[in-house]
Amino acid sequence: MAQIRRDKRFLCRKEMHPGTLFLLAAVYGAASFSVALLLGIVGYVFFRGFRELSIRFFTSVTSSLKGTVGIAGNMMNTLYMIILTLAVAIPTGVGAAIYLNEYAGKGRLVRAVSFAVNILAGIPSVIFGLFGMVLFGNVMGLGYSLLTGALTLVLMTLPLIVENTQAALQAVPEGYRQGALGMGAGKWELIRTILLPSAKSGILSGIILSVGRIVGESAALLFTAGSARILPHLGRGFRENAAMLGNKILEPGGTLTVELYLQMQNGEYGAAFGIGCVLILLTFLMNFLMKLISRTGDGQDEVFHGK
Predict the structure, then answer these.
(1) What is the reported pTM?
(2) 3-state SS class at 175
(3) Measuring CA to CA, which residue among 129, 205, 115 is closest to residue 168?
């Protein structure tokens, strides 16, 4: 820090070149524009939609017959989509990353799989929706359902989890591996007790990014999960309620982003901006969790190294 202060004082005393001044102005201008753009979008969305937020908005379902506007059903469908997608994507993605980083070596297979993962990350979501509709909906006979949408989102989120897990495993110091193997630990014991705990913050960051993509996806889900807003009617015995909640995964359901699209299409701009407020709050929450996890991981590393 002291060196930085001395450099700043030196730059202030020395006459700056016009090119340097232009570059600094461009950098500060770009940074200010980014912040202003974010504040403008958030401010406008909340200005248009905050008045729509109420207890009734969060606890009711949009119905033209009852004259109600609400997102309770869409919130439940979004929760279903997150749980179903992560239940498949986390073990698959983390397992694939462990295999590629710890078992597969540096051969052609690793390069081919890495290339495939990079290609998957760049495919438009509409293409995933068409593929999921044909494979899961038609060929497998799942039709329009939350399960079809979740399986489609698994394909979309796998690259995020695989790449973040691989990066987190590669960031673990090589000394950890050598020390554990030198003490007689097996390969799986090394992975389970040393590598995965050390890479936990990076893996969780990939999972949170995946949740963000799940929550923000709409195009693929319109082709696979549909747009139903129905809430399950509970109130009977525990077994009946559990069966009803379990069967819901085979029913169509629209998430928050799908409902936002439909409200905009129908000209209900107030409700659409209200849903936009909810999505922005979820985005801020996920970014806060990412920063909290990264700080926790850094703190654990400092304690581990005795700093």
Answers:
(1) 0.82
(2) helix
(3) 205
Cβ partners under 8 Å of residue 58, min gap 6:
70, 71, 72, 75
CA 132, CA 148: separation in Å to the nearest integer? 7
Q: How far apart are the first and last CA of the chain?
A: 19
Model pLDDT, residue 31: 92
Residue 11, both tokens:
């730059």
What's CA 3's distance to the chain center, in Å?
Answer: 39
Helices of type H across the chain: 2-13, 18-49, 55-59, 72-98, 108-122, 125-132, 146-170, 174-182, 187-190, 196-198, 200-216, 219-224, 238-247, 256-265, 269-304
Instruction: Tell me how far apart the alpha carbons of residues 279 and 67 are, in angstroms, rounded to a whole number.
Output: 24
Q: What is the pLDDT of residues 224-266, one digit of tens each?
A: 988 888 877 766 777 777 777 788 888 898 899 999 988 888 8
- Report the C-alpha gap between 287 and 198 in whole angstroms: 21
CA 15 to chain centre: 47
In sequence order, the 6+-apart residues with CB closer than 8 A to the CB of 297 are: 200, 201, 202
Place of tokens 């909340």: 46
Name residue 288's amino acid: F
Residue-by-residue DSSP string for 48-114: HHGGG-SHHHHHSEEETTTTEEEEHHHHHHHHHHHHHHHHHHHHHHHHHHHIIIIISTTSHHHHHHH
Rg (CA), the chain: 24
**88 with 151: CB under 8 angstroms?**
yes
